[in-house]
Specification:
single chain, alpha/beta, Enolase-like, domain 1, TIM Barrel, 7-stranded parallel beta sheet, 12 helices, 39% helix
Length: 375
């Protein structure tokens, strides 16, 4: 650190509970609010960068929660990096690996806050720190809950007519597999190719259930099958990938560069769900994408239902990384019933567009943040 203004003088963490526009159903839980850990890193020069610690629906997904992330950041990260420079991103992240194992969602919040603060100090957007943007927006797939067929179709039509989304994902794994499969096939048939349909089982089917129902789903019009079987059973995922003609996407199975290498080696998936949250931030995400590109795999810009800070970070990443070449589902803020930004992210023409301001390019409405802060 050559500039004393870059020194980190404070790290503040705040838990927010953000209401959703409708319940969002995962395989094992349903969310009506999205908890977010907001991390604010402030420098001696008076610049503040923000990051988010967000998991999809709670600790069921990867073992972390906003409460565990807050404890990690407050008690282990903060004492170690106070006084260091926000330009020491690589060094800080390397050192954190020696202090805290795993905890990638918590580390991602710190990683993004460092990028935001450093880019603001330099007077540039975060995408500049990542090599520069080569596009100004990315396609966004919308995720649907486990509502009845007619309600789902109405929601899809509203999104298409508003030109917000042209591809859709259906959550599975919570209902009886036969009933759930019939529901999804009915939706795909009703759309008749007017919009892309994918499914996400959140790793909740066993091998026998997946082998029975995934081919039926693909025959019924599903174009992408996301993580039907448990994360550690990569050999089973490879078996399914060989069985069906549609693309198979790994999500829970890939969180590290080595995970990506193993999936590529076994031919377990065609697409990787790249969440900047589960990978541990922007720097680690670049490593995962590099492995995917070397192996000829595509990457999908996936979501943990981030708020606008985490979403903006993922948009900067996707717009600067050609390896994100299978679209995204960075719809998180669209699912929120409350706007956290002074100026909302731009969702239009089926895309979310790159913010153009300094750092992440977005500014929080601090009155709303204070209102939603957990006491």
């Amino acid at each position: 650190m050559s500039d004393p203004d870059l020194a980190i003088v404070s790290i503040e963490t705040t838990i927010l509970d953000v209401p959703l526009i409708r319940p969002h159903k995962f395989a094992t839980t349903t969310s009506e609010v999205q908890p977010i850990l907001l991390v604010a890193i402030t420098t001696a020069g008076g610049v503040t960068g923000h990051g988010e610690g967000v998991v999809p629906g709670g600790p069921w997904w990867g073992g972390e929660s906003v409460e565990t992330m807050k404890a990690i950041v407050d008690n282990y990260v903060t004492p170690y990096i106070l006084g260091r420079g926000v330009d020491e991103i690589t060094g800080i992240l390397v050192d954190l690996e020696r202090i805290v194992a795993n905890a990638r969602f918590a580390k991602a919040a710190v990683d993004v806050a460092l990028h935001d603060a450093y880019a603001r100090h330099l007077g540039v957007g975060v995408h500049i720190l990542l090599g520069g943007a080569f596009r100004t927006g990315v396609d966004v797939r919308w995720a649907l809950g486990a509502a009845p067929v007619e309600e789902v179709l109405d929601e899809i039509e509203e999104k298409i007519e508003a030109r917000l989304n042209f591809a859709f994902k259906l959550k599975m794994g919570a209902l009886d597999p036969a009933v759930d499969t019939e529901r999804v096939v009915s939706i795909a048939e009703a759309l008749d190719g007017r919009a892309g349909v994918s499914i996400d089982v959140n790793a909740r089917w066993d091998r026998f259930t997946a082998l029975r129902y995934v081919p039926e789903l693909v025959d019924g019009g599903v174009e992408l099958v996301e993580q039907p079987t448990p994360a550690e059973q990569i050999e089973v995922l490879a078996e399914i990938n060989r069985l069906v003609g549609a693309s198979v996407m790994a999500d829970e199975s890939v969180q590290t560069p080595h995970d990506a290498f193993r999936i590529a080696t076994l031919g377990a998936a065609d697409v990787l769900a790249l969440k900047t949250t589960k990978c541990g931030g922007l720097q680690r995400s670049k490593q995962v994408v590099a492995v995917a590109k070397a192996a000829g795999l595509r990457c999908h810009g996936a979501t943990s239902i981030e708020g606008p800070i985490g979403t903006a970070a993922s948009v900067h990443f996707a717009c600067s990384e050609p390896g994100i070449d299978y679209g995204t589902e960075l719809f998180g803020p669209q699912l929120f019933a409350v706007e956290l930004l002074q100026t909302p992210l731009d969702y239009s023409e089926g895309q979310v567009h790159l913010p153009t301001g300094l750092g992440l390019g977005v500014e929080l409405d601090m009155d709303v943040v204070k209102h939603l802060a957990r006491n």
